[in-house]
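Sequence design from tokenized structure. All designs in this work follow the same two-part layout: the structure record, then the generated sequence. An example of the structure record is given first.
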């Protein structure tokens, strides 16, 4: 080994980044992060690139310090077992936040056998979900408290474990059975997915058949977004679900008006709770393959909609807008994008690859940055494709086109 050491380099990088994060916490009067619910959740606003770089260095360092055998063992087939069981039995609610419960008390409240429940909760503890402050006693950690208190996050994990996880193990079967499409950006299609093999129907059909699941899915969709602002405009939020994004934007930008369009079964649960924005957010039942009813809006916005469809169907959605568009109307798409391999560090690359395979499990496509222009070409003349920008710090991409007219 020469003088130069990658391990020591990574350690220095890590140390420098952690020092910057430490100073940020000090200068914003925040305590050090901890696994205790007594510590407030850290606010890393303004320091995200440094935090990401630290996590990249940490991931490289951990992987380099692992043997190949240990690298293989970093991912476990049992990772979701405890989350699945705890979600299904709603164990998060059995422990009051700020208090403790014994395993016996939890088992009795949940009507589940003590021994397996204890093993399952201790597995979750190894993922920092719950902790055992004294032998036999369970308390919340920040992660389990989040699951106990935030319905959107709990629904998100509920769907992951109950619906998606069984579908993941059928992805290879689906590819073997139905073959893959060679067209870029295309998935196998909802009817030919791992999800279809696991559940006997597509995710959309599951949701349509079960209003409870639909509500859960829509709530799960509200678990976080990242979007840049617009000037004064009417925004049509096509396939906008319960309007979570529109409502957030309406609060932030008082000059914006929103029409949230979705299917009837989704909109049945849609409400604008906040009186301050009630006159600027309305809901409209609309099938996005049918001609667009809201004419002359400044923005037609598709958030996380087209990822579920291949290019041909996405082009159909665009063509359905045409009768309503005025010159200069913008089509804005915020969606997921897979960066070209090797352009990011391994920590981020893993996140993107996981989200790509999740889309594949559901039979959906996923597009690399260049792929987002194709559906505008397929939609026909009149659209001027302006380009696609990666949204920093997320798996998102913002795609923009203008209607120039025919
Ligand atoms: C992945 S969710 C995205 C929801 C929302 N835009 C967001 O970002 O949170 C896809 C949405 O498309 C809606 N959708 C699916 N098929 C549709 C159709 N034919 N017409 C209108 N909306 C549809 C679903 O009900 C769901 O709300």
């Amino acid at each position: 080994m020469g003088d130069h050491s990658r391990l020591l380099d990574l350690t220095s990088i890590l140390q420098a980044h952690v020092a910057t994060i430490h100073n940020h916490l000090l200068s914003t009067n925040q305590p050090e992060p901890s696994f205790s619910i007594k510590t407030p959740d850290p606010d890393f606003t303004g320091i995200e690139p440094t935090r990401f770089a630290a996590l990249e260095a940490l991931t490289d360092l951990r992987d380099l310090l692992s043997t190949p055998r240990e690298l293989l063992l970093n991912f476990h087939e049992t990772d979701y077992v405890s989350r699945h069981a705890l979600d299904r039995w709603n164990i998060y609610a059995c422990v009051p936040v700020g208090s403790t419960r014994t395993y016996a008390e939890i088992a009795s409240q949940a009507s589940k056998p003590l021994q397996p429940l204890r093993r399952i909760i201790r597995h979750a503890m190894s993922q920092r979900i719950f902790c055992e402050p004294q032998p036999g006693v369970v308390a919340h950690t920040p992660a389990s408290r989040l699951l106990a208190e935030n319905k959107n996050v709990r629904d998100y994990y509920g769907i992951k474990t109950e619906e998606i996880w069984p579908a993941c193990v059928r992805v290879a079967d689906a590819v073997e059975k139905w073959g893959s499409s060679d067209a870029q950006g295309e998935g196998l299609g909802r009817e030919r997915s791992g999800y279809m093999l696991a559940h006997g129907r597509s995710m959309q059909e599951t949701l349509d058949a079960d209003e409870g699941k639909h509500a859960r899915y829509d709530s799960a969709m509200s678990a976080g977004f990242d979007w840049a602002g617009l000037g004064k405009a009417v925004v049509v939020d096509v396939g906008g679900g319960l309007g979570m994004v529109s409502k957030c934007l309406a609060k932030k930008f008082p000059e914006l008006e929103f029409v949230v369009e979705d299917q009837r079964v989704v909109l049945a649960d849609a409400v604008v709770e906040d009186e301050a924005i009630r006159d600027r957010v309305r809901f409209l039942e609309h099938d996005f393959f049918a001609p667009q009813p809201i004419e002359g809006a400044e923005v037609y916005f598709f958030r996380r909609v087209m990822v579920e469809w291949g290019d041909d169907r996405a082009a159909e959605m665009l063509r359905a807008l045409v009768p309503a568009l005025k010159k200069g109307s913008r089509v804005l798409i915020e969606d997921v994008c897979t960066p070209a391999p090797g352009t990011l560090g391994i920590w981020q690359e893993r996140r993107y690859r996981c989200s790509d395979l999740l889309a594949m499990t559901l039979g959906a496509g996923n597009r690399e940055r260049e792929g987002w222009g194709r559906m505008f070409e397929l939609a026909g003349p009149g659209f001027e494709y302006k380009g696609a920008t990666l949204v920093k710090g997320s798996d998102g991409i913002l795609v923009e086109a203008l209607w120039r007219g025919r």
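The longest strand covers residues 383-390. We note this feature because it recurs in several other targets discussed in the main text.
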